[in-house]
Amino acid sequence: FKDDRFIPTHDATIFDTYVADIQVDGKTIDLALFDTAGQEDYDRLRPLSYPDTNVVLICFSVDSPVSATSVIEKWVPEIRHFCGQCPVILVACKKDLRTDPQTIAKLKQDGERPVTTDIGKRIAAEIKADVYMECSAKTREGVQDLFIQAARLSLKNRSHRKPGTSCVLT
């Protein structure tokens, strides 16, 4: 999103921050984005990025059913603990791989299938996500809409917060 390009060899993030401008409803919004590591080694570091968060994007990959399971088992408890009732967008990433023959064949070897839209929506309902979205960084499908939705949720959430309290995109 930040550079509006797909990097096929993207290395896993430990903790990266970005600032991006986005046009939402005729206004320019500055987004502060915090991309954090999901590995267990960083469980103690990651919460440092949560203060003042306005919206949380919990992402899973459609080609990794275990990542969808971790939404419920790991991410939601952590987010609710550190961010309270901060708005959550559940994001199915790598949407393009859902119909990719190689991905389907590889998952089939392990007795699995790509995560479907219906399963994603069920997870979103179970975790009480504010929004469920799907995107593909490779094809760019849904990426811009995702960040527009996140900005709108952030602005809406900010207007309903008590003065002096805070629940940036993590």
TrEMBL record:
The keyword GTP-binding applies. GO terms for biological process: small GTPase-mediated signal transduction. GO terms for molecular function: GTP binding; GTPase activity. The keyword Nucleotide-binding applies. It comes from the Eukaryota. Signal peptide: none annotated. Gene3D superfamilies: P-loop containing nucleotide triphosphate hydrolases. It is found in: Membrane. InterPro entries: P-loop_NTPase, Small_GTP-bd, Small_GTPase, Small_GTPase_Rho. GO terms for cellular component: membrane. Pfam families: Ras. Keywords: GTP-binding, Membrane, Nucleotide-binding. This is Uncharacterized protein.
